Every structure is written in C-alpha cells, then in structure tokens.
Amino acid sequence: MNPEQKPVQLPLGIRLRDDATFANYYAGANAAAQGYIERACHAQDAWVDSFIWLWGKPGSGRSHLLQAACLRAEEQGLRAQYLPLQECLDYGPGVLDGVEYCDLLALDDVQLVAGQPGWEQGLFHAFNRLRDAGKRLLISADCSPRELVIDLPDLHSRFNLALVFHLQELDDDEKLRALQLRASRRGLYLSDEVGRFLLGRLTRSMDALFAALEQLDQASLQAQRKLTIPFVKDVLFGDNGRL
Questions:
Q1: Contacts of residue 65, Cβ cutoff 8 Å, sequence gap at least 6
Q2: What single string gives the DSSP state of each residue in 113-167?
C-alpha cells in the first residue's frame, strides 16, 4: 500500500459473506448486470464506466453482487469496501470519510438515507472524491436513480450518471436452478423433485430458501443423509426442525 494512502476500515461488525461470490450467483435474466460488474472489478476504463447502479426488489440479488464485486476486487489485490447502509445508519455519514482511498466502493440500500441532509451531503462529497481519484463505485437501491427522492439537486444529477441495471426476480424454474447451484457448491445433490418441494412449501424469498438449504446442509452432514423429501420434511417441518 502506498504510505500516503489513508487506511480504510469497515465499521465494526460488517463482514463480507464468504458465499457471496460470482460463482455462487445464478444470474438468469441478470447476466448482463453481472458481466458489467465483473468487468468493473478488473477494467481500467474511464471512471464513468465504473459507476454502476443496481436496483430491484429485496431478494433480487443486489447485496450478493455488491459483495461478490468486493471479494473479486480483493482477489485482484485491490482495496474494496462494502457498506450496507442498513447497518451503517447509527454511524452516520462519517463512514464515508476516506472512501476515496478504496479502489472500489459498494454502497448497499442507498434509498435508506435519501432525504437526510447529512447523508446526502456526505454522499455528494464522497462521490466527487471518488470520481476525482478515478475509483469505482457500485450502488444498490430499491428504485432507479431517477425515481429516488433526493433533496440535493447536485447529488441527484451525480446519481443519474450511473450505468443502471434493473435486476429481475427469478421465476420458479430459475429459483430451482439457483438452489441447485448453491447446493452443488456445498457438495450437495438437490434433485428437481426435492427442489420443487422446497419451492412449494417455503416462502419464495431467495434469502429464506438459501437459509433453509444451509440448515439442510448442516443436518445432512450430521446425519450422513442425502436430501430426500422425507429427510427435508423431518429437518424443516418436524418437531425438532421447524422453521
């Protein structure tokens, strides 16, 4: 690290998920967004091409892709910082101090601080410092930058410079493939039959489905059992494994 660079530290308690990788992400209709984000982790293109805005409903994979980008950047020897704003609210906009010393900054759920003067000023100045330093910025929100209600006009204009991707929710077939991909990365075999059983009995939220798969993975290891419908029923819905 350049000795003139200021160290950047994550707020206490914020960690990247080890399983939030590009290899673990089933893109479906979001393949173009994933491709651009992966390129942003490597390319030395003009700064504006490295400012990407992801928006979509909860569970559409926004947080996964931001964390995957940070993990990939770190693998490339770059300095990356992931800031889930839900967890940063109590710290205030001071968490943005020094972000220009990162090669890549990922801000998750930026809609949570829209309309708050201190945060908007902090984001505006952080944006300018990142741009002037030629660094990369990824932002996620539940709406597009044009739809986000921002009181600071200059910040709104900055946000509208982004390359924008609307992340689409997976349909049931794609959710099944996403579950099977995640299972295979864990060394598990998830048949179509068992996967469709999970989709039919659990909420369609990918976070909930992945949490159930993790529970099944642990139970399978302990019991040395394959994932069958009777075993899944016992683990997830039996007296000792009710969700």
A1: 25, 33, 34, 37, 54, 138, 140, 167
A2: GTT-HHHHHHHHHHHHHHHHHT-EEEEEESS-TTTS--S-HHHHHHHTTSEEEEP
- Over the stretch 149-185, which tens digit does the pLDDT of each residue have? 999 999 999 999 999 999 998 889 989 999 999 899 8
Q: Find all residues with CB under 8 Å of 185, minimum gap 6, and list them.
A: 19, 23, 24
For residue 3, count CB atoms less than 10 angstroms from its CB and return exposed for 0-12, middle for 13-18, buried for 19 or more.
exposed
pLDDT confidence of residue 1: 40
Which CATH number belongs to the domain containing residue 118 in this structure?
3.40.50.300
143, 166, 189 — which closes off a domain? 166
CATH code, domain with 233: 1.10.8
pLDDT of residue 11: 52
Residues 176 and 137 in one domain: no
**CA pair distance 68, 74, nearest whole angstrom:** 10
